[in-house]
Amino acid sequence: MSASSVPVLTIDGPSGSGKGTISRRVAEQLGWRLLDSGALYRAVGYAAGAEGLDLSDAEAITRCAQTTKIRFQAVTDGSDTRVLVNGHDATDELRTETAGAAASAIASIPSVRQALVDMQLAFRKGPGLVADGRDMGTVIFPDAPYKVFLTASAAERAKRRYKQLKEKGLSVTLATLQREIEARDTRDASRTVAPLKPAADAVFIDTTGMGIDDVVAKVLAVVRP
Ligand code: C5P
Asked: Which of the listed CATH numbers 3.30.300.30, 3.40.50.300, 2.40.40.20, 3.10.320.10 matches domain 3-223?
């Protein structure tokens, strides 16, 4: 089947909206592939940091985005997919808030976004793709037949992130997290290229106060009404 006939479900939304968990569960249930596009931006931010580049040097960061080798390695023990950046397993480093902030900074550079387009399109293979990100339904897969925009209040998103990071043994405070989340939202929503906004044809789901299973069911119903 040609790439454009492969069904895609785009799941966009702000950080902490539950996109990661929901996308993974929904992809498993559908038996579709998963694209975690945020991991690509995090990987470029990480590689740039490792090379000691200035994150505001658009030319250097673009070259870095064009040359960084990013590989996703599925694991069989049920734990998270590993992300290899230039051959180094950077999965744990990529989860930190520092990596999120670096990703958000470099993601506002148009030529960096452009450098990652083909890599994202290459994920569109049968039987289907669940694409998790900020601009999946608006820019990367505008022709996707299924689109969802997930959100939740900033306070709830900070709480979820707090729990996740605590479970991973990282030390953070709730107040700092909420501030960081709000700063990242503002930057992601106000950038001129591919800002965070729902596609006109996306199903909007506010997950504040909802459990994971209920959100998964709602998202699955978009694909299988
Ligand atoms: O989703 P995640 O928190 O991993 O994304 C990290 C950052 O990467 C976001 O804050 C955003 O700035 C950027 N990003 C993006 N476009 C995407 C996915 C992520 O700009 N499709």
From this structure: 3.40.50.300
